[in-house]
């Protein structure tokens, strides 16, 4: 049963959304928050499967909360402002709902949440083997690349930017979660909602002040900055 938290600084909006969610027997609303601090406390305490997140809060922008979430926690944005759609995809939101919420769109979001949380079939999970190569499709072309050549993957709206050890990149169709399901873990590990890295290709990690860091890969001359939550996750992986 998906366990969700509602984050909105308007109590009537929370009550309305809670009533709409009540028609879904398998959705359990386990908490509500009106401020960023309240939301952070609830997330740490309750560890929800998903949050329904308003953006314009009196205490700040709802996107501030996303960095505190684990990659496994789904974000469903609920806002009166459609201009935040691009920002929502940048944080790999599962869905984007515009107030007043349409019941059919809410049902679509719930179905996406169910699909995300559904365990893989046992037979498929037992027989699955990591692919040697993976197909990257774009509007202009399709290319097969060795999985071992991928250094990192970044979410870009409805697409995924795939970086290779040859310093090439491809903008492939599909959300980051689709690629996460197809790649072996380890060495591929999700550090944040928008980034997956191949630990075997990391050449240097430069730990910086404020809990941040810079990643460098062997043949790639670029630096890849990591935020605090991604840096914390990387430290945990490297220490294991």
TrEMBL record:
<protein>
    <submittedName>
        <fullName>Transcriptional regulatory protein YehT</fullName>
    </submittedName>
</protein>
<keyword id="KW-0597">Phosphoprotein</keyword>
<dbReference type="Pfam" id="PF04397">
    <property type="entry name" value="LytTR"/>
</dbReference>
<keyword id="KW-0614">Plasmid</keyword>
<dbReference type="Pfam" id="PF00072">
    <property type="entry name" value="Response_reg"/>
</dbReference>
<dbReference type="InterPro" id="IPR001789">
    <property type="entry name" value="Sig_transdc_resp-reg_receiver"/>
</dbReference>
<dbReference type="GO" id="GO:0000156">
    <property type="term" value="F:phosphorelay response regulator activity"/>
</dbReference>
<feature type="domain" description="Response regulatory">
    <location>
        <begin position="3"/>
        <end position="114"/>
    </location>
</feature>
<dbReference type="InterPro" id="IPR007492">
    <property type="entry name" value="LytTR_DNA-bd_dom"/>
</dbReference>
<feature type="domain" description="HTH LytTR-type">
    <location>
        <begin position="134"/>
        <end position="240"/>
    </location>
</feature>
<dbReference type="GO" id="GO:0003677">
    <property type="term" value="F:DNA binding"/>
</dbReference>
<dbReference type="InterPro" id="IPR011006">
    <property type="entry name" value="CheY-like_superfamily"/>
</dbReference>
<feature type="modified residue" description="4-aspartylphosphate">
    <location>
        <position position="54"/>
    </location>
</feature>
<dbReference type="InterPro" id="IPR046947">
    <property type="entry name" value="LytR-like"/>
</dbReference>
């Amino acid at each position: 049963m998906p366990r969700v938290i509602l984050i909105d600084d308007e109590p009537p909006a929370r009550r309305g959304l809670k009533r709409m969610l009540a028609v879904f027997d398998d959705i359990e609303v386990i908490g509500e928050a009106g401020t960023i601090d309240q939301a952070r406390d609830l997330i740490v305490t309750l560890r929800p499967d998903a949050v329904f997140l308003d953006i314009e809060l009196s205490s700040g922008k709802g996107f501030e909360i996303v960095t505190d979430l684990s990659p496994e926690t789904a974000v469903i944005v609920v806002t009166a402002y459609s201009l935040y759609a691009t920002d929502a995809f940048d944080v790999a939101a599962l869905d984007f709902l515009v107030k007043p919420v349409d019941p059919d769109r809410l049902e679509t979001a719930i179905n996406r949440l169910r699909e995300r949380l559904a365990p893989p079939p046992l037979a498929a999970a037992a027989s699955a083997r990591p692919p040697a190569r993976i197909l990257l499709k774009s509007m202009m072309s399709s290319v097969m690349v060795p999985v071992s050549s991928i250094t990192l993957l970044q979410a870009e709206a409805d697409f995924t930017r795939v970086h290779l050890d040859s310093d090439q990149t491809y903008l492939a169709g599909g959300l980051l979660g689709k690629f996460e399901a197809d790649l072996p873990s380890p060495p591929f590990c999700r550090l944040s909602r928008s980034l997956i890295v191949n630990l075997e290709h990391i050449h240097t990690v430069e730990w910086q002040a404020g809990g941040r860091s810079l990643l460098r890969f062997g043949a790639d001359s670029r630096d890849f900055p990591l935020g605090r939550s991604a840096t914390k996750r990387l430290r945990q992986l490297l220490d294991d």
